[in-house]
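User: Sorry, what's this?
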Amino acid sequence: MNPFSHLEDEKLMKLYQEDEFLAFEVLYQRHKDRVYSYIAKRTPKESDRDEIFQNTFLKVHKSKHTYKDKYLFLQWLYTVARSELLDYCKKKKVEYIEYDDNQYATEVRNDDFDLSEYKSLNDKEREALKLKFYSDEDYEEISVALNTSKANARKLISRALAKVRKGLTGDKS
């Protein structure tokens, strides 16, 4: 058993910054499945997932000195993963994965369903909605992924839904 396995993430990262590689091993084992799942939900090809996952932990290693222990490690890790995912999409000139509900929906005429309101949301609002309804993440996980508070994640989703609802009902007030 690893002697550091009982420590909190932030303390482990501090040890890793001091070149204690067993501390990184604990962090990796603790969070690898969650990070891979986060990436997998947004990337259709397994080879792309693996590359982004690898790059995420490579970047964690290369930029370990930039981590400040006043932040939650998991927030920082998700920020690195999200950054790698977006960089990869830009490099490969692919769009960030959007939720496609066509496989679940009954046949809907195109003029009955307009995504313009969804597309008018800012990136953070769209990401929050995807995390909530596509990835089925709770507000705590969303707050970590978006580097915000749990209360702000709730407000972000609520406001985004209100904007979409307002646009779909044609309410101009």
The radius of gyration is 19 Å. DSSP finds eight helices and no strands in the chain. The domain at 112-169 is CATH 1.10.10.10 (Arc Repressor Mutant, subunit A). Residues 21-40 form the longest helix (20 residues).
